[in-house]
Every structure is written in C-alpha cells, then in structure tokens.
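Record filed here:
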Amino acid sequence: VRAVDERIALMEGGADADQVVAAIDRKIEDTGDPAQKAELLVKTARSLLGAGGGADDAVLRLEQALEHAPDHVVARRTLIGVFLERGDWAAAVAGYEALAEVDPEARGEALRAAGRIWLEQLDDAGRAAEILSKVRAEGLADRDTPALLDKALRAAARWEDVIGMLEEELAEAQKPKVRADLCRRIAAAWRDGLEDQGEFLRWIEEAHKAKEDPEIVEELLEHYDAAGETGRVVELLQWKIDHLARKRKMRDLPSLLVRLGGLLEVLGRADDALAAYRRCEEVDASYMPNQLAYARALMVAEEADAAFKVYQMLTMRINEMEEKEQKIEVYFNLARLS
C-alpha cells in the first residue's frame, strides 16, 4: 500500500491523469474501509474532471463514493458542480437538497440554491416557495431570500402568504418610506392577487398615512374618482395642490384648482369653490377656464361688480374661445350685469 501511495504522489506531480486514476483504483481494491474507499473515489473523480474529460466516469465514481459515505460533503459538492455545468437542473437540485440534510453548515446555502433552481430553472414555484419558506422559518435567509420568496409565492398564487410575509416585515419596519412601500405592496397583493378592492383601498390609505407621497395620492385619486367619492377626491386634490405649491411646481396648479372648485360646487361649498378660483387667479390670471368659472362663482356670491370686470376681460379674448356656448355666456352675463 505504501508503495502505491508513493507512486500516486509522484504521478500527481506531473503524470497523466489516467495513470493517477489507475494507481488509485488499485488502492481502492486493496482497502476494505468504506470511508477510505469514498475518499479515493472522490480523488479519482476530481483527477478526471481536472484533466478536462471523463465527466461521465467522474459522476459514476462520485455516486459510488456517496454509496460508501452518504455524508461526504466534497463528493456531493463536486457532483453538484458537474450537474450545474451540464445544465442538469433536476439532478443539481436533488444534490443541493441532499447536501442540506448531511451538512448543517451548508444547509442555508444549499436550500437557497435549491429554491432558486426550482423557481428559475425548473419552473416549479410551489416547490420553490416551500423550500424558501423553510429557509426563512429556520433563520437561514440571506439578503436575497425575501425577494426570491416573494417572487415564488406570487408565482404560486399563494397570496395570503405573500401578505403575511409583508405584514411581518411591516411590523419590524421603522422608516416611513419603508413602511409606505410595504403598505403599497400589501395593497397590490390584495388587488392583483385576491381581487379585494376594499382591502386594497385600506392598505393604500395606510401607505398614505405612513408617508404622504404624490404617487400614492395619484392612486387614491384614481380610485375615489372612479368610485364617485367626491369628498375624498377634494381632500386629496387639496393635498396635491398644497404639495405642488410647496415644491414651486406651478404648471399644473391652475387646472387642479379649477377642478377643485368645480367639485366644491358639487358639494354645495360655494364659498370654498370661490376661494379656489381666487387662488387660481393669483397663480395665473390668464387661465381662461378659471376666468369663466370664477366669473360664474362671483355671480353666485352676488359679487356683481367683480363678476362684471372678469366678463369684461373675457370679451377681449372672445376669439380664443372654441365653444360657442362660452361666447354666449360672456355676452349674456355682461348684459345681465350692465
């Protein structure tokens, strides 16, 4: 045996891989120790792979090594490497799952890799979600695990689990921006996955409470406008207008203020509507939709002199009006106020 060992050492220093393998094979035949057999089989497999060929023979030897020593980590990792290089995803994932059972130190890494393969290569989101949920439950997650698990759960249509995971993250979150983002993701899961508009709206409102954000306001405006909930639309429009004014973004203010004024009139809040039109006048006195709405509101408020002045100014822009009804309105009300 010692002579064989010496010959192997000499060959590994520069001999042909086939010669090394042949020498080790003789040693394998001479030993009755399963652990040593496994070690030698792994050694021959790695020699074959290192020489750039004999992959099939190497796989056979690695599998034989695992028969002698099922917990041989190097054998399992080497075998997984071969399968990954071949793109044999089913064999690779089986290898990772087996590695997770025999090597506690590699369990997290192996299960995470298995979960990713099930999801991205084998297109089995259910199995991926099962494995990645186990990773999370056992405290073996890395920074990529939550996003990967979220993707798997969504692909598997396990929306209750998606929401539960996000709610757990929300309970831990402190920063307003993070809390708002989590609330929005929960809302989207309720809407897109479970088709529950009530819960979607509740969580979007929670997102707005966590951190007032223009994008969230736009989502809320779209929903409440479609639902015909004018009171809430007014509140959100007022927030949006004030936000834009603070940011000195004045371009959209005139149209928003006119829209706000019109909704306030629908709610019977004539004084507030007039205040909105006056504010628009201060922002852009030339904005014609506001001039028309402002003049009407002044007439409702019985501020005849002020209304007359606005209509007089509008006569100088009569040719800019595209609608015949607007021209008639201007001349008719001027006649009434004269």
User: Anything to note?
Assistant: The first helix runs from residue 2 to 12. Residues 291 and 313 are 9 Å apart (CA to CA). Confidence is low (pLDDT under 50) at residues 1-14. The two ends are 123 Å apart (CA to CA).
